[in-house]
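Lab notebook, page 48
Experiment: co-folding of the full assembly
Goal: obtain a model of how the components sit together before planning crosslinking
Operator: M.T.
Materials (sequences as entered):
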Amino acid sequence: MKQRMDYSAANCSVAAALSVVGEKWTLLVLREAFYGIKRFDEMQKVLGCARNVLSDRLATLVEAGILERSHYREHGQRERPEYHLSKKGSDLFVVLLALMQWGDQWLAKDGEPPVAVLHNGCGLAVFAEMRCADGHGPLTAKDIYAKPGPAAILNRRNDEVIGTVEGPRGDA
Amino acid sequence: MKQRMDYSAANCSVAAALSVVGEKWTLLVLREAFYGIKRFDEMQKVLGCARNVLSDRLATLVEAGILERSHYREHGQRERPEYHLSKKGSDLFVVLLALMQWGDQWLAKDGEPPVAVLHNGCGLAVFAEMRCADGHGPLTAKDIYAKPGPAAILNRRNDEVIGTVEGPRGDA
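Observation: model returned without errors.
Model output:
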């Protein structure tokens, strides 16, 4: 597709996001942070990953400003770190929810979700969905197209369509 | 957090989803499929990854039923494969959009998006957002809680709250 070939993937925000969180353990550490797990030993126990891997991932997430480190001390114990989500980290929840619902729909046994994610206000299930700024939706991939944005690196006019986003074959 | 510790992460749909698409190149291959790139050589050119890596990732995505392989033949050339998104693959677009908007907001220079994702119908920007089944939203992490779902592996009552989803500190 010529249009796509004319613009650069060098500054893609998907790639940028994946360079920070695009590692399986990193997203699973975040999953536990969202479930309220704050302490190294608890996180290590639920994840079952090697301690040095967890230690690396927590350090990466703190350095990226996604988790914030504070400290607690239990009676008679030495001071230990705790990890809390920052606003930047909390904003990643929609990514995890989107992954979770795709896994529920396409990979879970009988499509039964292991975890129910619910709205505090009304107790109903919460979904990651796509809507436009005018509220149209929920949209699917075939309702959507992509254009170079303000920060695109390209050698073509800024109002040209890169390509329609590809829906399933035969749906067009 | 005791509640979280009482239920298993063994059948988590986030982990299941990541075991299929949780690899940086895999998600970038999908990004190109959404932009309409179908052919190996074009994909290799825009991604700039090694040919054997791309070949592996395409095979994984076909095996997982996310991409479907068909064939084309240009005049005087041998038959070559093309890759199209299946419905299962197309449903992943919300994951990529959520990653993209997080990258735009938190990682892009001056918050300027390299790519604009727009609604076919009205041309306005499209967002991945969280809403409940009753349409309340857009919700943030602190509006949401998690409970064991129908397929949870746990040793506790099914109506107990696992934990509130953790918002940014101080927002509670």
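Interpretation: Chain A touches chain B through 108 residues (CB under 8 Å).
Next step: discuss with group before ordering constructs.
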